[in-house]
Sequence to fold (227 residues):
Amino acid sequence: GAGVSQTPSNKVTEKGKYVELRCDPISGHTALYWYRQSLGQGPEFLIYFQGTGAADDSGLPNDRFFAVRPEGSVSTLKIQRTERGDSAVYLCASSPKGLTGELFFGEGSRLTVL
Amino acid sequence: AQSVTQLDSQVPVFEEAPVELRCNYSSSVSVYLFWYVQYPNQGLQLLLKYLSGSTLVKSINGFEAEFNKSQTSFHLRKPSVHISDTAEYFCAVSPFNDYKLSFGAGTTVTVRA
Fold:
């Protein structure tokens, strides 16, 4: 379809491993966001891209988290040395422009760290 | 910084009954307001928004929300719900001309026949 696509939909890993989560936004959307949703909570902002550059990464919890968007389309969220507290649903969203809060979300990648 | 409080985590309701989901926010600056909905096994999608103008905003499927600046609220209502309205509803805010949404914890609405 034409929506935001996230892979994998589910990822189970062991503590200390490296994980990559991929987001393919809606074609033509210049703004891309990553949010994290823990059980029983609303989504929390992680990082925002406008084009290829990370315009705001203030929500990344620590330096184990990193995200890239090298060609201004697909983005990858990378988590090093995973911890059990990283377990959550990671949501990607895109929008045609970044200033109105009208985001189009993917279904999320559920990460479980054992 | 902004914060959003959704006062009810679970709202059970019978089909064709009215429903109200409460949302209060705090912010030191003016904000845009949103309701997002997540149907089972689907991603979040925008239900309705308040950016400016009339404080009463409506969705295409019968929901409405009213922005009350003095009470810093943006409650969501529907006069008659359907089984298909079963979902989780999130209230969210963002500062004017900003991109960062702050979400509430969500309200799960379960509609029973």
